[in-house]
Write a structure and sequence with these properties.
heterodimer; A: about 675 residues; mainly alpha; two-stranded antiparallel ribbon; 27 helices; 2 strands; B: about 325 residues; alpha/beta; 10-stranded mixed sheet; 11 helices; about 40% helix
Chain lengths: ~675, ~325
């Protein structure tokens, strides 16, 4: 093996390899940082370029994209509150508060260095422990995966946000969204109102963009300040970050190990691992109270984990031919197109390719570090971007992420509707992160539950006996219930606290809907939805109805808790003081949403880039209220629109070749 | 171009609006052609189409752009295909029976009917296989049947969901052998494959590419082709073992109904040239997708025949809703 590794190191030091690593890393960082383009889309976009390369080289490039995109995703999560990849959602919990405090640069350095450590641990595990880890991944059947998903979601609910009940509501709303469309297992067509466009369910990428990008832009409109956030730049940022990180060596290592292990679980990957690491960090931290308010540990742990996932998810791919994540699935395609069959035979048949690839993965980690160190100074300046440029720019990027990739107007409507709901729900403390994770993991949860119950019924006569007879599943089940117990105790504590809650946020007086009314409405809507889901499920096959009934039940329970708490006179009194929607600038808000809708409709008529130009111009002009001279306002908007459209055109049309409808000009 | 569009255009863009004049049919295609792949990148259908494109592009002389539109086992992408303009600039890979079964079993929600496709050609034909772990006691399919008969419903078979090809083949196998298994559905061949490796299920039915993939850990007890497959000479067909199980899945090329005969013939010819290229045949063999050419008429007949067989299964097992 050492011999093979030495050869691989030699191969990787060849300049063409280094070049490929560099290109892949640059592309990955950039793609990951763009809202709407995730690690998966990055790997998919670069896939065609690898066909003409040597297999090992092509694979290394894709791995570089994958690794760097997981890091790049955190850049936008930290800077503009929009995770570029779903694995970076957790980073926002503490990354966003840090940015608000002017510490964006520090947060980026933490993310980079923690990510590097995680990436290294994952890559080393891949290099030395693939056979062992692969056998381990086979111990995880549907029963185990179900309980991992449940624990993951319970963690998300208890960790993100101030109110555990609202966290749970967010998670079930996300899961509820996954009920729509064709159920892959039973073949039932669920809650799709005979509309074929819903057959594949609510599309994920537009939903995530809506949840985060659109919602945070709408939030930004409230902000009367010029830029997204203040930014304190100082030379010592890197040094201070390193000394902070050196105090958390154990945490970094532990998070990386967790990331690697969770990474080998197919489908769970980056998003769960980040939350597991975050929960662990909070548990072992000396300052758990700082979590959610801008803790360095709260950024370091998920970042180490989501980069460690990369190595982990490649383990079952190489050893068994089973991809551990969406990106790994595309790499499987790349391998097979080159005529290489991953699986038990791979190490014997193509040791050169395997080792060159695994060593190459290590190289990509270093490339990521170097590129990060060079770019953070500049990329952190993004938060200083004036609002009049930031708003239209992020929205155009979200549009190309939805319409550009799918060419379907339906996806744009999903983006808008989810965006508006997410904004409203965030106002009343239902965090977008919880909805996103429910959405990402809902299908996995249902699938594994149905499989476990089928297998359990044959082998043991019952699903629960099946869980009880699998030691690992049993342990995971106990963990899940433990997390839920913590959640319940939190709910009880929060209720007492809520009675004396200070109205530190929200506006007193003005406005028509206070928080209590909003909570009562949300509770009532959840209960009505519960009825609708359970009623609708009557028409499904027994397998297809099982999970909707469960989700409907959860809607009813959490809706009732919310309703009860807010109708209780003592709790309600404090909630009545808060006016969550008083700060919404309704006029400008309506104009932006309206303009976005018109933009979408105009794409088919005049072309994407043409419509984007007009949209950019109009919104920039509209928001440039501080520019006093009308000529300068007009010229400024035109110049910005022209430059930004050109950049987007070069990046998406010329380099990434994303097809858009034929327009008037391009 | 209507007056409204024109005025929008002139207001913002000046007089550049006349660029998009309709192309002369004689020089088809005069620009790049979008090809919808209704599955994720990297999957079996995606790999096949990318391989096809690689060999077709030099013949066509224009770029063929893959547009991945995954969702609902391909249904979403196909529903979009049939709504595209039938100008020959949007085509798709169709993978019967995956596009056939939903149209038969869920006609109301599928979003297309089978006559909304113009089938152009078939360029690969893939049989199915039945796999068991190497350390299982079943050495032949006959062993397996004998055991399965003693405990109906107790053996668990992995396959891909109620509207998938794997289930249909599983039903055919059960029918021919007179056995009954518990079907555990997974969302995709890779997941079924993991389920059999991890011992979650006892047996897997899936595309023949898994025979090569599982070498060393899995034993292939039968293949659903009429004759033994070139890549798997040691694997007996079900037919030669005395069980009448023949099924296949196609990699085919189609456009929305209404594309001109000219376009159909053009692509039929491209298909033929591609499949006649020995480089393509070798590349397809590597990804476990045996290349085979069937022109427009033959492709249509094959797919019609398959639809008829699927309809019989859907009716027999009450799969329609």
């Amino acid at each position: 093996m050492w011999d093979a590794i030495f050869h691989a190191v030699e191969a990787n030091l060849h300049y063409s390899h280094l070049l490929v690593v560099l290109i892949g890393t640059l592309a990955g960082t950039f793609i990951g940082a763009l809202p709407g383009l995730s690690a998966v889309s990055g790997v998919a976009l670069l896939l065609p370029f690898t066909f003409t390369m040597e297999p090992a080289q092509g694979l290394v490039m894709l791995a570089a994209v994958y690794m760097a995109a997981e890091y790049g995703g955190s850049i936008s999560a930290i800077l503009i509150n929009t995770p570029g990849t779903s694995g970076a959602a957790c980073t926002m919990l503490d990354g966003t508060p840090l940015t608000r405090k002017g510490k964006a640069q520090e947060a980026l350095y933490i993310s980079l260095i923690a990510g590097t450590i995680g990436g290294l641990v994952g890559a080393i595990a891949l290099l030395f422990f693939t056979p062992v880890l692969a056998e381990m991944s086979l111990l995880l059947g549907p029963a185990e995966i179900f309980w991992i998903a449940v624990s993951g979601l319970a963690l998300v609910a208890t960790l993100s946000g101030r109110h555990t009940v609202k966290g749970l509501i967010g998670v079930v709303i996300g899961i509820g969204m996954t009920l729509i469309g064709q159920d892959a297992i039973s073949g039932d067509m669920r809650f799709m109102f005979d509309d074929y466009r819903l057959v594949g369910g609510i599309p994920l990428i537009p939903s995530l963009l809506g949840l985060f990008a659109v919602a945070s832009i709408l939030q930004l409109l409230e902000n009367s300040g010029e830029a997204v956030a203040p930014l304190k730049l100082h030379k010592g940022a890197l040094g201070s970050v390193i000394s902070e990180l050196s105090k958390m060596k154990i945490l970094l290592l532990w998070s990386s190990v967790l990331g690697t292990v969770v990474g080998i679980i197919p489908g769970a990957g980056a998003s769960i691992s980040a939350f597991v690491a975050y929960g662990e960090a909070k548990r072992i931290s000396k300052h758990p109270e700082e979590f959610g308010k801008g803790s360095y540990e709260g950024v370091a742990a998920p970042e180490a984990a989501n980069n460690a996932v990369v190595g982990g998810s490649l383990v079952p791919l190489l050893a068994l031919g089973i991809p551990g994540s969406g990106s790994a699935a595309i790499m499987l395609g790349a391998l097979t197109i080159h005529g290489i069959q991953p699986g038990p035979q791979l190490f014997a048949e193509h040791p050169d390719i395997v080792y060159t690839f695994m060593v190459g993965l290590l190289a990509t980690v270093f490339a990521m570090l170097i590129i990060g160190l060079f770019t953070i100074r500049w990329s952190s300046l993004i938060v200083r971007t004036p609002r009049n440029f930031m708003v239209p720019a992020v929205l155009v990027l979200s549009m190309i992420g939805t319409y550009g990739l799918s060419n379907s107007l339906f996806d744009v409507y999903v983006l808008l509707v989810v965006g508006i709901f997410s904004y409203m729900l965030t106002k009343i403390d239902v965090s977008a992160v919880t909805i996103a994770l429910g959405l990402v993991l809902g299908a996995l949860m249902e699938e594994s539950f149905q499989q476990a119950s089928l297998v359990g019924n044959v082998d043991f006569g019952s699903t629960w006996l099946y869980f009880a007879n699998r030691p690992l599943a049993l342990v995971l089940m106990i963990v899940a219930f433990g997390i839920m117990a913590v959640g319940v105790s939190q709910i009880l504590r929060e209720r007492r606290a809520a009675e004396n809650e200070e109205t530190e946020r929200g506006v007193l007086g003005r406005g028509s809907i206070n928080l209590r009314t909003a909570n009562v409405i949300l509770g009532a809507v959840l209960i009505v939805l519960a009825g609708y889901i359970i009623y609708g499920a009557q028409a499904f096959t027994p397998e297809g109805a099982q999970f909707p009934n469960l989700v409907g039940g959860a809607f009813a329970v959490f809706g009732s808790i919310l309703l009860a708490a807010n109708l209780h006179p003592r709790t309600a009194a404090s909630q009545m003081q808060i006016q969550p929607f008083a700060t919404v600038p309704w006029r400008i808000w309506t104009i932006v949403v309206g303009a976005l809708t018109l933009f979408a409709i105009a794409i088919d008529q005049i072309g994407f880039y043409e419509a984007a130009f007009i949209f950019l111009f109009v919104i920039t002009w509209l928001l440039s209220v501080n520019v006093e001279s009308p000529q300068r306002r007009l010229v400024g908007a035109t110049v910005f629109a022209a430059i930004f459209v050109t950049l987007v055109f070069i990046a998406f049309k010329l380099i990434l070749k994303i097809p858009t409808p034929v327009g008037l000009i391009v | 171009m209507t007056i409204r569009h024109y005025s929008i255009a002139t207001a913002f863009m000046g007089a550049l609006a006349l660029v998009g004049a309709p192309a002369n049919a004689a020089d088809y295609p005069d620009r790049s052609v979008n090809i919808i792949v209704p599955f994720n990148p990297g999957g079996g259908a995606d790999s096949s189409q990318r391989t096809f494109n690689k060999f077709a592009e030099p013949i066509v002389g224009k770029s063929l752009v893959i547009v991945n539109k995954p969702g609902a086992g391909g249904t979403r992408g196909w529903a979009e295909l049939v709504r595209k303009k039938a100008d020959g600039y949007t085509l798709a890979i169709v993978t019967p029976p995956f596009n056939v079964i939903p149209a038969l079993a869920r006609p109301k929600q599928t979003g297309y009917t089978l006559d909304q496709f113009s089938n152009i050609c078939i360029y690969a034909v893939v049989p199915d296989v039945l796999l068991v772990p190497t350390d299982s006691k079943w050495k032949t399919f006959a062993d397996f049947v004998k055991d399965a008969k003693t405990r109906p419903g107790k053996l668990k078979v992995a396959n891909t969901g109620k509207l998938g090809a794997d289930l249909m083949t599983t039903l055919l196998i059960e029918d021919a052998a007179g056995i009954k298994m518990t079907k555990v559905p997974f969302t995709g061949g890779s997941k079924s494959f993991k389920a059999i490796l991890s011992g979650t299920v006892d047996v897997m039915v899936g595309s023949a590419k898994f025979a090569a993939k599982g070498k060393g850990r899995l034993r292939t007890l039968g293949i659903t082709s009429k004759k033994r497959a070139a890549g798997l000479p040691d694997v007996p067909t079900f037919k030669e073992q005395g069980f009448n199980v023949v099924s296949e899945r196609f990699r085919a090329f189609a456009g929305p109904k209404g594309i001109s005969q000219k376009v159909i013939d053009y692509w039929g010819d491209v298909c033929k040239k591609v499949v006649n290229n020995s480089g393509f045949v070798a590349a397809m063999k590597k990804i476990g997708q045996p290349a085979q050419y069937r022109g427009p008429a033959a492709a249509q007949a094959s797919i019609d025949g398959m639809a008829k067989r699927m309809k019989a299964l859907v009716d027999k097992y009450g799969l329609a809703q």
